[in-house]
Structure formats: structure tokens, C-alpha cells
Fold:
Amino acid sequence: MTSPSTSAQRPADDGPRTARSARSPLADFNLPTLLAPINARLAPLLRRGLANPLAFTPGLTVLEVPGRKSGKPRSVPLVSYLAGPVLIIGTVRAKSQWIRNLEAAENPRVWLWGRRWPVAKLLVTDNVAVLSLRCTARV
Structure:
């Protein structure tokens, strides 16, 4: 008994198939370039105290550190969480330049409630830093 033939024919094998470009449409997407103008407008508002974290609530904070190579002051708005005298700041991107600058900085500062506060580094990882406020923070 013969098997029924199907009307669909397989295409002839033309050799190895060439894959389409493995390049993602987002390959040219540069997040730091996109965020720079947003950060430039957001940082002054955060320095005045807008959207700063209150006790045990998330907010936004400006971290100020000197650049590790240039020495110029660098300001970065970051997501933050305040738990007593401990401030946890972070970002969703790993390998951020602010982390490297923070690791190299001797006197990092954060802006909270319209004032600049000196902080001590307790822990710095790939995308999170735990800082201790050096003075009594009002909440």
C-alpha cells in the first residue's frame, strides 16, 4: 500500500541557510544619551526636595560625586529608599558610570530635602549602593 501523497512540495535544499542579521533593532539604542537631557532637567527639581524619599518610602535623590578621571562634579538622579540613617540608592542598569565614580569618590554627597548631605559608603554593588547619612537627617 502506498502512502497518500500531499500536494505540498518541499523546496529544494539550496545549501546552508544564511541567518538574517542577528542585530537587534535596539542595538543602536543608547540609554545614557537618551537620559542625559531628562536628568539635566530633573536634577535641579530633586535638589529642591521634590520627590525625595520620606521615611520608609521610595523616592528620587541626586547623588553628587567627582568624576573618577576628570574630577569634575557629577550629579545623577537615582531611585532611593530611606530607612533611618541609611539611604539605599539604585538603578536598573548594571555597569553604570555613577557606580564607578562612587567607588572612587572620597566625599560623596546626596541631595535630600533641599540640602546637600555628606554620606559614608557602606556597600556598593553593580547597580545598588547603601549609604549612611553622616548627620542626623530630619524625616
